[in-house]
């Protein structure tokens, strides 16, 4: 257990050196970070770690990442380096470990999905949705969140429709899923209609053109009559 924890701590060295070099954290703060992470890692390496251990670790890392971002902004640092990505990767790492241990916890899955959405972790989120649906195929909230993400974020109507159709095959009696499916189709029709209107393919443009041509013709006829009378 000790060797595994030590290896994880050693892998953090380049990131911590980068933070100290940028003066985002001083040496004393770096030592405190190492100490806290060591404590959390030992808790997770126990034979029967508790969910609260993972949650406290996650909260610590989220707060630390927020502090890092705020200090970097105040220092006016623009260039990105190793420490800009390490914190986010570690939070994902802890979430993944927590869900391997507590895969039946719906609330924990929702917390991870929310974190991925807030951090725009699209590639990871796609896999998280797939795993959540694998373990919880009867949970309507996962199907709806996944389909909404495909439709709203990725503009993937086909993917969203496929997800809701699968959800209905698995859960044919869940009214909420039927409502979401109908809502999706209505939103799709609305989007297509708006797109056709913008492109001038909804018939209104051709109608206006026909009216304009008609006015021109009548106008020409009146001019011809005036010329004949003269």
Task: Provide a compact summary of the structure.
The chain is mostly helical and 230 residues long. The chain is built from eleven helices and no strands.
Outline:
flat
Low-pLDDT segments: none
- Structural class based on helices, strands and sheet pairing: mainly alpha
Beta percentage is under 5%
Order of helices and strands: HHHHHHHHHHH
What is the share of helical residues? over 70%
Beta-strand segment tally: 0
Q: How many strands, what sense, and barrel or not for the largest sheet? A: none
Q: What is the mean pLDDT?
A: 89
Number of helices: 11
Query: Radius of gyration, Cα only, in angstroms?
Result: 29 Å
Distance between the termini: 109 Å
What this model shows, in words?
By secondary structure, the protein is mostly helical. It has eleven helices and no strands. Helix 1 (2-11) runs antiparallel to helix 3 and helix 6 (106-118) packs antiparallel against helix 7 (122-135). The longest helix has 26 residues, at 204-229. It is flat, with a radius of gyration of 29 Å. The termini are far apart. The mean pLDDT is 89.
Features:
230 residues, single chain
SSE layout and pairings?
Layout: H1 2-11, H2 13-21, H3 27-44, H4 51-75, H5 83-101, H6 106-118, H7 122-135, H8 140-153, H9 157-170, H10 175-199, H11 204-229
Helix pairs in contact: 1-3, 3-4, 4-5, 6-7, 8-9, 8-10, 9-10
